[in-house]
């Protein structure tokens, strides 16, 4: 029993190498992945709304005759087109236009348009609709089902992706792709029907439920996905029970020396978790421990103790971070701490090339005891002499796949490296048990002394001028600030553009200060240069997308402005806010929202104002997660689930356990393979 339909996407009609690489960025490598790529939302193109019946703030399809066309000169040139049908009129507005559009909207032409309706100076209007000119004869038929809009990525157009997925859905419905359905009738709807509904819902389906995931079709997939994880982790634990590791013993003299260099006393919580870790490391069974600690709780020092134990035992340890910025920050901090002890860490990231790379590789295969870097440390061609410990920072950015690849890397014979996974995402214990099944958990539940909680205010974006004035005063006092522009559309291109525009505006509004800009589309070297300028105080204000969420430590920065705060999940807001309040200044966070504020969003922002306790925030997040949280869900995902969402689907966990028991080995293989790709990697890690 296997799935037919595992063709790599690159072999599909219409998928060239370029598109294939873009699909890969979305986690889509085979045909099945296409079927499991869930739409973000749906558009109703099954009907035409009469022009007299359109309502503002809706997204609709209309049809009409062009009765007027005019190019007007306002602040800039604009094209205005008036459409009419028997019931009324609608204005189309174009802020930019091409000569071809003047022809397309020639008076007398009939057009079909799709777009957002707004209330404008001349009544209802649509700006830049998607449109097609209708010929003289019968208009093309309307689709029978809703049109799915998928999450895309830079360089992959919605239309391209939709076409590829559409073809896969056709093959599924034709029976060309056959999906084994080991859960069969025990779960409804059946798998194939669930996929059909998700990609091609009829107009009668509950769309809100489809989008927020409460729809039975989505729940069906979520169940299977959670089941796949459960089964895989069970196998992992079984394999782990047979594994051996090297016992690592700390050296007290070195530990004392480290504390001397570091210059502060560990908190009680840091001491306690170091104790828990040392106990694990001292055994000949591989440690699998999750270290949870709020932003700023001092996880780096704990990691340093673990690394030191490996070095003191004559073996090797590696610490990996998901981004170069974060990895470099570790490299700097840990080098400073460890070099006085005679330990020189090796630095390895994707950008380390040529001679530097050869040297790094030689040291890893040779005398080096500590390696710091990105996942480049675990790529082909990197050989360790004797890797006995892996520390993974900010694990929520890695998926289960990488975690397993890391484990496989260090496995030599039956010895497997100890693993410490550090995360700043506070996870309620009930969920942590599942999200990190197979990991023991340590918690740093105390912040270093002297931290003042960040004060938080919530303001409407209508008060932007006031906010900018406040910023001017703070910068004038020599403070530094972040201004975060989070994702507001499903594309990092637009996110980067929004940040660029904001940086320009703020530069213009605050000419006396230097403004930096950082976003995810910049080259690592450029990002680093921008971060360095901010860390050294050369730039006063840093405009950023959410790339700063992880790993930035600039103690002088004491002000954090977050735009579109209502769009972000609580955990993410908490992560962002944690970037300030690390120095002696009283830090402040301004959450800027765009009205009107829905009930859930209001409660969320209130929570942020009321508490700075990560665990309280995490619990509240769970309660409040509601419809339309695609963004928050995606960003806070602890494990990278494709469909399941632990907050939403917590009640599926129990049923999943009994489903797991009812499956035979072949059925379990299908489910694991389908969702986690390749059962092999689970057996011998
Ligand atoms: P995180 O847990 O977010 O990774 P870090 O390890 O970056 O936190 O620590 C945050 C800041 O607090 C760093 O500047 C670090 O040097 C400092 N720090 C860590 N532990 C202590 C402590 N026990 N006393 C004082 N400062 C500490
Ligand atoms: Mg950290």
From TrEMBL:
<dbReference type="InterPro" id="IPR001650">
    <property type="entry name" value="Helicase_C-like"/>
</dbReference>
<dbReference type="InterPro" id="IPR027417">
    <property type="entry name" value="P-loop_NTPase"/>
</dbReference>
<dbReference type="GO" id="GO:0016887">
    <property type="term" value="F:ATP hydrolysis activity"/>
</dbReference>
<keyword id="KW-0233">DNA recombination</keyword>
<keyword id="KW-0378">Hydrolase</keyword>
<dbReference type="InterPro" id="IPR033454">
    <property type="entry name" value="RecG_wedge"/>
</dbReference>
<dbReference type="InterPro" id="IPR011545">
    <property type="entry name" value="DEAD/DEAH_box_helicase_dom"/>
</dbReference>
<keyword id="KW-0238">DNA-binding</keyword>
<keyword id="KW-0347">Helicase</keyword>
<dbReference type="GO" id="GO:0005524">
    <property type="term" value="F:ATP binding"/>
</dbReference>
<dbReference type="GO" id="GO:0006310">
    <property type="term" value="P:DNA recombination"/>
</dbReference>
<keyword id="KW-0413">Isomerase</keyword>
<dbReference type="Pfam" id="PF17191">
    <property type="entry name" value="RecG_wedge"/>
</dbReference>
<keyword id="KW-0234">DNA repair</keyword>
<dbReference type="InterPro" id="IPR047112">
    <property type="entry name" value="RecG/Mfd"/>
</dbReference>
<dbReference type="GO" id="GO:0003677">
    <property type="term" value="F:DNA binding"/>
</dbReference>
<dbReference type="InterPro" id="IPR004609">
    <property type="entry name" value="ATP-dep_DNA_helicase_RecG"/>
</dbReference>
<feature type="domain" description="Helicase ATP-binding">
    <location>
        <begin position="280"/>
        <end position="444"/>
    </location>
</feature>
<dbReference type="InterPro" id="IPR012340">
    <property type="entry name" value="NA-bd_OB-fold"/>
</dbReference>
<feature type="domain" description="Helicase C-terminal">
    <location>
        <begin position="477"/>
        <end position="623"/>
    </location>
</feature>
<protein>
    <recommendedName>
        <fullName>ATP-dependent DNA helicase RecG</fullName>
        <ecNumber>5.6.2.4</ecNumber>
    </recommendedName>
</protein>
<dbReference type="Pfam" id="PF00270">
    <property type="entry name" value="DEAD"/>
</dbReference>
<dbReference type="GO" id="GO:0043138">
    <property type="term" value="F:3'-5' DNA helicase activity"/>
</dbReference>
<comment type="similarity">
    <text>Belongs to the helicase family. RecG subfamily.</text>
</comment>
<dbReference type="InterPro" id="IPR045562">
    <property type="entry name" value="RecG_dom3_C"/>
</dbReference>
<keyword id="KW-0547">Nucleotide-binding</keyword>
<dbReference type="GO" id="GO:0006281">
    <property type="term" value="P:DNA repair"/>
</dbReference>
<dbReference type="Pfam" id="PF19833">
    <property type="entry name" value="RecG_dom3_C"/>
</dbReference>
<dbReference type="InterPro" id="IPR014001">
    <property type="entry name" value="Helicase_ATP-bd"/>
</dbReference>
<keyword id="KW-0227">DNA damage</keyword>
<comment type="function">
    <text>Plays a critical role in recombination and DNA repair. Helps process Holliday junction intermediates to mature products by catalyzing branch migration. Has replication fork regression activity, unwinds stalled or blocked replication forks to make a HJ that can be resolved. Has a DNA unwinding activity characteristic of a DNA helicase with 3'-5' polarity.</text>
</comment>
<dbReference type="Pfam" id="PF00271">
    <property type="entry name" value="Helicase_C"/>
</dbReference>
<keyword id="KW-0067">ATP-binding</keyword>
